[in-house]
Write a structure and sequence with these properties.
By secondary structure, the chain is of the alpha/beta class. The protein is built from 18 helices and seven strands. It is 45% helix and 8% strand. The structure holds 2-acetamido-2-deoxy-beta-D-glucopyranose (NAG) (3 copies).
């Protein structure tokens, strides 16, 4: 009898282990976790373009600015006041839990087209979200917007769960603090791609999109809005943006080495000068293959002619020319004033300042440092001002 009990119990234990072995992790090679990529940037810094570079990849579920919904729900708040709500929304979306949008969208049945700029996501234009475009092909927003805008909202979640990479683009973080918990969250595998751009080019581009950016700019300026003269608004906004980009960069340097490896800095100018090489670096960092059709496409869109028609479209254009446009279209007085408020950030990121109108318009003078900030070693000695070598 005892022997029988013993045998039965052994069998039960064996069955239990077998079950564990079959169905859960400790005894099995770990399933590759989805990779979560946050493209962290600011307005008019080429982040739609970088978002497209990720979004067109057949392994990527991409959303552009999901936290737009948070900001548009609380337009009287401040960027800092909304940081945590933005952070928590990102975490849910990374985990493909789209119920988080209930807080920011009208109740009742909704379509995937309720999402801000949904058609920028190839994943929402191909199966399982929409059957009109194959997963492995470049999709065009204009076509997708017409053909896939009736799809129900629950397909967003279904689509998200079918990808190995979830990539979100956000311009609504002004320091790294709200993101610390996500960096160490065991349910996430977060990688940050920090995209920066020459503040003078950003400034010029913002001048052309002032109306589109109005609500956002007011949230950025927050309480100070009422104390500022109207003509100072663009400089004050840029000051906040420049400082926040620098704060993010510096905060990373003080993190443990293991966490620093979850951060990748890219300058928009480096990207447009060597689109294939830089895209390849970026893909490699997050574990994506640079497939031949994508190489072809990247080549096409960066060599195309024209300056791009609408503020939020990434059309074929001469990207290099666009990145230099401020040099002949922005008056030196503005450049000079901007360099005062953004000088520190420019020095650290390798954007050389101009000291005269002549220097500004002399295009044989390269204003991009030959070194890349990512190649520099950050040294911070106790009690001393941080320096870069
Ligand atoms: C790139 O451009 C060429 C020539 O216009 C075109 O034939 C090709 O289909 C394009 N490829 C992609 C992936 O857009
Ligand atoms: C860049 O754009 C400017 C202004 O549109 C134009 O005058 C110039 O010829 C362009 N340069 C190149 C190399 O395309
Ligand atoms: C433009 O810059 C180049 C490189 O520094 C310099 O050699 C050249 O003299 C400059 N031209 C003018 C007109 O200032």
């Amino acid at each position: 009898m005892r022997l029988l009990l013993f045998l039965v119990s052994q069998m039960a234990i064996f069955a239990l282990f077998f079950h564990l072995y079959e169905h859960s992790s400790p005894f099995r090679k770990e399933e590759p976790k989805p990779v979560h990529v946050l493209v962290l940037s600011s307005w008019r810094s080429g982040s739609s373009f970088v978002g497209q570079l990720f979004g067109q990849h057949p392994d990527v579920f991409y959303l552009m600015e999901p936290a737009w919904h948070v900001w548009m729900t609380f337009t009287e708040s401040t960027a800092w006041g909304l940081h945590m709500a933005v952070r928590d929304l990102l975490r849910s979306v990374f985990l493909c839990d789209m119920s988080v949008f209930d807080a920011y969208m009208k109740p009742g049945p909704r379509k995937q087209s309720s999402l801000f700029q949904w058609e920028q996501s190839r994943a929402l234009c191909s199966p399982p979200a929409c059957d009109f475009f194959p997963r492995g092909e470049i999709t065009f927003q204009a076509h997708c917007k017409i053909l896939c805008n009736k799809q129900p909202f629950n397909l967003v979640e279904k689509a998200c769960r079918s990808y190995s990479h979830v990539v979100l683009k956000e311009v609504r973080f002004f320091n790294l603090r709200p993101l610390y918990p996500l960096l160490i969250d065991p349910s996430l595998n977060l990688h940050i791609v920090h995209l920066v751009r020459d503040p003078r080019a950003v400034f010029r581009s913002r001048e052309h999109t002032t109306a589109e950016l109005m609500i956002d700019s007011h949230i950025v300026m927050g309480q100070n809005l009422k104390n500022l003269k109207k003509e100072d608004h663009p400089y004050y906004t840029m000051q906040i943006i420049c400082k926040s980009q620098l704060d993010i960069y510096r905060a990373i340097q003080s993190l443990p080495k293991a966490l620093q490896q979850r951060y990748f800095l890219i300058r928009y100018e480096d990207l447009v000068r060597a689109p294939l090489a830089e895209t390849s670096r970026m893909y490699e960092y997050v574990g994506l293959k640079f497939l031949p059709h994508l190489q072809n496409w990247v080549h096409n869109i960066t060599q195309g002619k024209g300056m791009g028609e609408h503020a939020f479209h990434t059309n074929a254009r001469n990207a290099l020319n666009v990145s230099q446009a401020w040099r002949w279209s922005l008056p030196y007085e503005k450049v000079s004033r901007l360099q005062e408020v953004c000088g520190d950030t420019m020095d650290v990121l390798g954007y050389l300042q101009v000291r005269s109108k002549q220097e500004q318009s002399n295009l044989s003078l390269d204003l991009l440092s030959t070194w890349k900030p990512s190649e520099r070693v950050y040294q911070s000695e106790e009690g001393s001002v941080p320096t870069w070598s």
